[in-house]
Design goal:
By secondary structure, the protein is of the alpha/beta class. It has a single domain (8-404), classed as 3-Layer(bba) Sandwich (FAD/NAD(P)-binding domain). Helices cover 35% and strands 22% of the residues. Helix 1 (16-27) packs parallel to helix 13 and helix 6 packs across helix 13 (372-387). The two termini are 31 Å apart. The relative contact order is 0.22. Bound molecules: flavin-adenine dinucleotide. Flavin-adenine dinucleotide (FAD) binds at residues 12-18, 35-37, 39, 43-45, 47-51, 53, 225-226, 242-246, 265, 267, 301, 341, 343-344, 366, 368-374.
Length: 405
């Protein structure tokens, strides 16, 4: 006998993944309640760089990344930080990452990630059209700029060797180069545009539009923390754990082990800026800094700090970002706001998307690491298909939480 179609859902987490899931379920006729706990700072879904990074098809758990790690450490001027106080978090995570970077696993991971990314931008279009906010998508690609000839040589070689089928890179047009020269004092020696990728006009505005659509469609948004046990008691037919970096303890209620780490990033932002909205976001490659002009202002993001989500922020990270911005001459024309938040990262740099083997009512969608904004809407569509007992495309075996034992 087939199970009756689900009529109600409780979604734990109201970031980009949870809201995308909630709206996809609502579109299929389910009554949806989203629980989104207030935190001291806005979640990663609000603080990110806004890039729909369809070109990033190589999982970051790779031998290539491990080889360059020593030169990218924060104490040598790079963005990667392993705080000594958090060794209990990053050491076990790092050992798992080493295993995940083995060539065969990396190749399988790349294929799995590529399958998700193939639908990422179309899913963004469908979602923003459905909520009546298509203008929040900026399909103008993004720019990668290098400040040294050696950096440009290495960067271009890497792009040639690992070209994405979804986003082709090209030289800047004269108009793009002129716009870029107009906003940075330190002129890059070389830059390319990754055409085919996109950005959102403002991550905060996107979340607002999704929340408004949820409410307009009869869904509820409860600003309280929720556990799986509480969601079960609510009587919902489907429960979705999409709580970003806080998802691991929720899954533990069902006996699943998810070795999530908080891979924290930092941003600085000023509401006023001369950066023209028509200039796409720019990755300053050697500095690992991304500058993006949002509706709410100019933002620069950087830093990969492997720690606990509640560890105190490291003020040196903001100072580092401000120093890069000053050296480049980025047009932060007003007071700077600072933010820190957690990328929810699993050691193989693949998300966890699937159905709990312990309770078939419970689905999960978390661990989207550097690609949560990119993959939120496609994840929503996949989870909604799963909730309605359809066979979702792509194959979800590589994303099962069971891969961690
Ligand atoms: C600096 C930086 C730059 C980034 N840039 C990009 C980018 O350009 N492109 C890209 O694709 N990705 C980017 N990312 C990654 C992306 O932001 C994340 O992967 C994504 O936001 C994760 O979304 P999420 O919904 O899973 O989690 P979150 O955004 O963390 O949302 C989870 C929500 O769940 C709530 N919650 C937690 N526990 C509970 C509970 N028990 N009950 C109820 N609610 C709960 C939290 O309060 C939170 O609101 C960036 C991240 C950072 C830090």
């Amino acid at each position: 006998m087939t199970a009756p179609a689900p009529r109600s859902a409780a979604v734990i987490g109201g970031g980009i993944v949870g809201l995308s899931v909630a709206l996809a379920l609502q579109a299929r006729g389910l009554g949806v309640a989203v629980y989104d706990a207030p935190e001291a700072r806005a979640p990663a879904s609000a603080g990110n760089a806004g890039h729909i990074a369809v070109e990033q098809h190589a999982p970051l758990a790779s031998l290539a990344n491990l080889r360059t790690l020593p030169g990218r450490l924060m104490r040598l001027g790079g963005p990667v930080s392993f705080p000594p106080a958090a060794i209990g978090h990053w050491l076990p995570f790092g050992l798992r990452l080493l295993r995940a970077a083995a060539p065969a696993r990396f190749a399988r991971g790349r294929q799995a990630l590529g399958a998700l990314l193939a639908e990422a931008l179309p899913a963004w279009r469908r979602l923003l059209d459905a909520v009546g906010a298509p203008d929040l998508l900026r399909p103008q690609g993004n720019i990668v700029a290098w400040e040294s000839p050696a950096g440009a040589r290495r960067g271009r070689a890497a792009l040639r060797e690992d070209a994405s089928p979804l986003a082709q890179w090209r030289d800047l047009t004269a108009a793009e180069a002129e716009l870029l020269d107009g906003v940075v004092r330190l002129r890059p020696v070389d830059a390319v545009c990754i055409a085919g990728s996109a950005s959102v006009a403002d991550p905060g505005a996107v979340l607002e539009a999704l929340r408004a659509a949820l409410r307009a469609g009869g869904g509820t948004l409860d600003r309280r923390a929720c556990t799986v046990a509480q969601a079960r008691r609510s009587g919902a037919d489907v429960i979705v754990v999409a709580a970003g970096v806080r998802s691991a303890p929720l899954l533990r209620e069902l006996g699943h082990r998810a070795p999530l780490i908080a891979e924290r990033g930092y941003h600085i932002q000023s509401a006023r800026s001369r950066w023209p909205p028509s200039l796409p976001s720019v990755v300053f490659a050697e500095r690992a800094v991304v500058a993006t002009r949002f509706l709410s202002g100019l933002r620069a993001t950087s830093i990969l700090e492997f720690t606990h989500p509640d560890a105190p922020p490291d003020p040196r990270a903001w100072a580092r970002l401000a120093a890069h911005a000053a050296a480049l001459g980025l047009p932060f024309d007003g007071p700077l706001e600072t933010w820190v938040g957690s990328r929810p990262t699993l050691p193989d740099y693949l998300p966890a998307i699937g159905r709990s083997a312990a309770d078939p009512r419970v689905l999960y969608a978390f661990g989207h690491q550097h690609l949560g904004l990119t993959l939120g809407p496609v994840t929503g569509e996949i989870v909604a298909a799963l909730a309605c007992r359809e066979a979702p495309a792509p194959d979800l075996a590589p994303f099962s939480v069971a891969r961690f034992g």
